Amino acid sequence: MIQVMLWLPFAAGLLACLVPRRFAPWVAVLGAFLTLDLAIRLVVDFDPDLPGLQHAVDESWIPDLGVRYQLGVDGLSVFLVLLTTVLWFAATAWSAVRTPERAKTYFLMLGLAETATLGAFLAQDLLLFVLFFDLMLIPFYFLFGSWGPEHPGREGEETIRPSAATIKMIIYTLVGSLLMLAGAIATGVIAGDGTPQFSIAELAADPLGEGSQRWIFWFFAAAFLVKMPAFLVHGWMPDAYRIAPLPVLAVFSGVLSKVGAYGFLRIVLPVFPDATIEFQEVLLCIALASILYGSVMAFTQTSGRLVAGYSSVAQLGFITLGIFALRPDGADGAVLQMVNHGLVVAPLLLILVILAERTGGDDITRMGGLAMRAPVLAALFLIVTMALLAIPGSANFVGEFFILNGVFQEKTAFAIVASIGVVLAAFYALRLYQRAMHNRKPEGIESREIGWREGAIVSGLVACIVALALYPQLILDRTDESATAAVEAARTEVAQR
Amino acid sequence: MTDFNAPDIDYAGLSPIIALTVGMCVVLMVGLVAKNRFVNAYLTLAVLAAAAGLSIWQWGEQEDLVAGALRLDELALAAALMAMLAGAVATVLSIREPAADEAGHGAFAGLLIGSVLGMTVLAQAQNLIAFFIGLELLSIPLYVLCGAARRREDSLESGLKYLIIGSLGSATLLYGFAFLYGASGSTDYPAIAEALGPGGEGDDTLVLIGTAMAAVGLSFKASLAPFHQWTPDVYQGAPTPVTAFMAVATKAAALVAFARLFEVALGPIAVDWDAALAALAVASIAIGNIGALGQDSIKRLMGYSGIAQAGYMLAGIVVFTETGLEAMVFYLAAYVLMNLAVFVAIVARERETDHGDDIRALEGIGRSRPWLAWPLTIGFLALAGLPGTSGFIGKLFLIEATVDADYTWLGVAIVIGTMVSLAYYLRVLAAVWMRPEPEPLPAIAGAAEGAFEPSVPDRDRVPPGASRCALVVGAGVICAAATIAFGVYPDPLVDWASAAGESLGASG
């Protein structure tokens, strides 16, 4: 089942290339829907009390190089898989409603991207993970570069060309992931006795020496931090966010950034426990800087996309903070927050498409008064905004609470500074909402209700937010076991010191 | 055996060489009679296919031929098969090539087969004399082929430049061989290895000078930095099918010969040369990747990229392990396929547009020519080492080999080189997919280009549609499909490369 789910989106993308142009979008939508269906069954089947992997697949792939085709889900990945399929279904459906030109290649790339992302969440072999992690970039390179609109940029800035911004993004992220490739190979070769050993479980059972861990840790951290993006290595983000075609950006921002955070939990913490402890505070500082920088930048941006982009930097900072608290509750909160943020940012970006259509651009200073004739749109947007600022009662609140609680127990000072970020989130989220929906309506802007097809897609995502707000234990219960296991190695290491 | 006292000739072992030799003569003769370009092309393909078939038949044999001058093993056959594949693709690409029309199809194809023959001999050479014969047999036809477009100044320049630099390389190499012979008293690899072995002449100055000069001479052929200066110029000027052939086949033969010379004959003094070769590898990776950054001519870009790729592959020799050699052979095979996939598109667009090999010729073909754009894209993604392609597995193999042999820093150098390479590979892909197709140049610009020779009104015009020939597009699609297939299911190629890598250990 897990295999079918992994390869189905790509197969649907290939099939979409073969059928007549008219049907291509609907083949892709069907593929994304069936994948979603399989992912839901995966969650339903998931047994929270069972330790270790479920639905594991373990086949030989390249025996000479020691690479195995190992897949499986556990509490860390099962909801991220679900999130991936939910967002991809939304994005595919959205794209089918507004078919882009050269639709066949578009849907092929979208399908390949989903397969690669699912692969990264499912892979249990270090090199297989790296492979899928790198593979994700290829379709996004084409999607961003070929279908992205030009962006006029801020005043005084040159027009941002999609191809240039995309190359920048790819080089940033690939520099990180190529280092990770070297690190992964080194890990496998050093750990293996003669034949390299890449199974993550085996590597975690028998960690490397402290000296090797130290440098390999940074190779992996570089890849994951760039992907998130974290403060200092976020340079690709502003340009890429402004030129990305929006349904694609929704999945990109919603899911791909989580792969980085997931990588820390899945690989770095268990496989490099000594280095993790050694650099815990460095990572916490980076996380803190991301939260503050992201929040302040989000508050000052005029482009709606950049508000979303910088808020992601801040949210991913929270998630990193939770992970590097190295406590089970921090990790639980991090996983919950990954799902939350994905569910919030995707409808936010889709709503921004609608707003941009009404106003002719994503500059929020030129918006206003859009709520007048569009109560449904306003209501949906409001729920998303409330979730974004983590209002008590939302699942985001629960996630942030768990994270801050975890950090507070471990490193009190960091938790206190981080809570400023929670306040700042309210500032930028409410500012975005007010600017767009309230205030005086400028000339030449039309307040119109969301179309029913787009409305259905956004409502679906908002329904997920509400459902999770009512019952966050859905995730917490199933994640706890694996999250505890993920921080276990590092915790025992701390106890020994 | 009977009492008949003739030299013992292993015709089966020599059969690929015999097939190529006979085929070369036949193609040349038929070319005099039959003026039809297709007759020649199909005949050439048949010769190469026969030689390839015989090589596959001999796969698994491990024996000395011609009194130990040649060594038949999987490594040699692997290089020969790559050369034959490259020759076949170059033949397909040259079907309507003006250079081939001018030089006469028989002569063009005959020279091409001659060069493949030289590569086959070079890859098998296990004796300094045989090595040199193979090298010259490889090079001399290429000098002519580079200058085959006789009415184009830059083609002649390319041929001449290659001739001069190539001769310099050959001379250096020969000089080095003389020193090696002087020190060891033999031209046979095993005898040299014995003479240099424990208690032998290992650290003799003559040996070191000879080794250094042999390395320099071979670096000229394999276009390793800092002996690479000729590469971009020659690649750019030569007729593009010849460039495609040179870029892959010469590299394959030269690197395999490099490996055999250094690991068998000079193996006992590996401590003396591995640091120098590592420096060559790093220099090639750095200079190749940086040089490619600013290139607008795709052929020059491929020249620089080839220098960098040769640097990656040299790392497989430097580590001096069986895994390293296996990784090198795997990467070579992958490299041959991905490079050919790229060159098919370059040749096709060169004929369709007035932009020659400028990057602008490729703009917008993602929309207008998907069957060219996809192989090109896959080829470039593989060259950049992205997953899903054999290029990724190849890099994985190489880096694993370097880390395994405690050359982790060399693995990191490969990784850093790859990062730099993304900048220029992706730039081409951006042109292919993210730009509109350019307007055809106004006629006046075309006239200005050919202005130095007014008697040629239209330089190298090929009838439109020539590149739509199913053979040309098919060759690209097959190479690209193989690149993807070996990226997803690399086992067969890994086994093949392992057999080749192990075979050298068996002889040395």
- Give the N-to-C terminal Cα separation of chain A: 44 Å
Biggest chain pair interface: A-B, 37 and 37 residues
Unreliable stretches of chain A (pLDDT < 50, length at least 5) are none
Biggest β-sheet: strands ordered side by side in the sheet of chain A: 1-2
Output mean pLDDT of chain A.
88
Helix content of chain A: over 70%
Q: What class, by secondary structure content of chain B?
A: mainly alpha
Number of strands of chain A: 2
Structure description:
The complex is a heterodimer of chains A (497) and B (508). Chain A is mainly α. Chain A has a domain at 299-497. Chain A is 74% helix and 3% strand. Chain A has helices spanning 2-18, 24-45, 75-97, 103-122, 126-135, 137-147, 162-191, 200-205, 210-227, 237-243, 246-271, 273-278, 280-300, 304-324, 328-359, 375-388, 395-410, 412-437, 452-470, 473-496, and strands at 54-62, 67-73. Chain A has a two-stranded antiparallel sheet with strand order 1-2. In chain A, a hairpin with a 4-residue loop joins β1 (54-62) and β2. The longest helix of chain A is centred in the C-terminal third of the chain and has 32 residues, at 328-359. The mean pLDDT of chain A is 88. Chain B has one domain. Chain B contains 21 helices and two strands. Chain B has helices at 11-33, 37-58, 74-93, 98-103, 105-124, 128-146, 153-184, 189-196, 205-222, 230-237, 240-265, 270-293, 298-318, 322-352, 365-368, 370-383, 390-404, 408-434, 443-449, 470-488, 491-507; strands at 63-65, 70-72. Chain B has a two-stranded antiparallel sheet with strand order 1-2. In chain B, α13 (298-318) packs antiparallel against α14, α13 runs parallel beside α17 and α13 (298-318) packs antiparallel against α18 (408-434). The longest helix of chain B has 32 residues, at 153-184. Chain B is globular and about 70 Å long. The chains are: A mainly alpha (497), B mainly alpha (508). The interface between A and B is large, with 37 and 37 residues.
